[in-house]
Amino acid sequence: MQDLSPPKNVQTSIDEAVVSGILSARIRPGTRLSENEVARLFNVSRTRVREAMMRLEQRGIVKVSPRRGWFVVEPSAEEAVSVYAARRVVEAGLLRSMERLTEAGRDKLHAHLAEEKAAIAAGDRQRLTCLMGDFHIRIAELSGNFILVEILRDLTARTILISLIYQSEFHAMQSHLGHCRIVAAMEEGDFLKAAELAIEHLDEVETGLDLTRRPDPLADLRHSLSLPPASNAPRRPKTQTNRGE
User: Fold this and answer.
1) Are 3 and 48 in contact (CB under 8 A)?
2) In angstroms, rounded to a whole number, what is the distance separating the alpha carbons of residues 139 and 116?
3) DSSP assignment letter at 188
4) Helix (H, G, I), strand (E, B) or coil at 123
5) Which of 47, 80, 196, 197 has minimal Cβ neighbours within 10 Å of its Cβ?
6) What secondary structure, in 3-state letters, does 85-98 show?
7) What CA–CA distance (Å, rounded) separates 202 from 169?
8) Average predicted confidence (pLDDT) for the chain
9) Contact indicator for 191, 99 with CB cutoff of 8 Å
10) 47-59, pLDDT tens digit by residue?
11) Cα angle vertex 204, ends 72, 237, to 5°?
């Protein structure tokens, strides 16, 4: 028997579970999202799952392949450039619109930076991936504009998918220091400087991406069999290493 009117939070939890899985780097580009399996996990009908997937498709998170089902997107190099351009506009505009950093907001950002530093010390790459993206969402939350929070969550999720495809190196400490500089400018009340630092930070991250790389369709099996990464993908000469998120 189909669930004709499940609670709204059950429907939205499917969307949020997928986005959260991407933000924490547990869900990778190209992951297949079976309607049957997701329906069983959330105890809803396939119709409800399909509705959630269609919403995620509109947000640029998943895509449907005829006769194969739903898959997490594998952003192209062109899409990567567009996503970073969008993030620069949103994040710089957000910071320029802010007027003050409250004591509670400062404490939240410092606590987050402490988590980043601890994860770096522990060498926890997956945790770092989550934290590096989450930093930018935390700033949006401090603005109190939850429309921008939703937009930035989606853009950050797409950025993480991009990094999983095109990022060949991960320099978390450099990214962490970039975050520290942004927070320092916010504490000084200089939000124009914070916006400039945010753009500079995103520029550095994008410059470090190798957009000539192509997704490896055998990546999951290769990892399961403990085989080395594919080495036949075309690579461009590296002029600057990636700085994480």
Assistant:
1) yes
2) 15
3) T
4) coil
5) 47
6) HHHHHHHHHHHHHC
7) 16
8) 86
9) yes
10) 999 999 999 999 9
11) 85
pLDDT tens-digit map of 134-145: 999 999 999 999
Task: State the alpha helices, DSSP H only, in 73-145.
Answer: 77-97, 103-122, 125-143
Q: How far apart are CA 183 and CA 146, in angstroms?
A: 20
| End-to-end Cα distance, the chain | 45
For 94, the token pair is 């957000």
Pairing of strands 69-72, 62-65: antiparallel
Residues 6+ apart with CB under 8 A from 203: 88
In the DSSP assignment, the letter for residue 69 is E
**Residue found by looking up tokens 């993030």 in the block:** 87
How far apart CA 81 and CA 162 sit, in angstroms, is 10
Q: Which strand (E) or helix (H) includes residue 224?
A: helix 219-224
Band (pLDDT 50/70/90 cuts) for residue 211 is confident
Tokens found for residue 35: 């309607």
- Give the span between the Cα atoms of 168 and 227, in whole angstroms: 17
Q: What residues contact residue 124 under an 8 Å CB cut-off, 6+ apart?
A: none
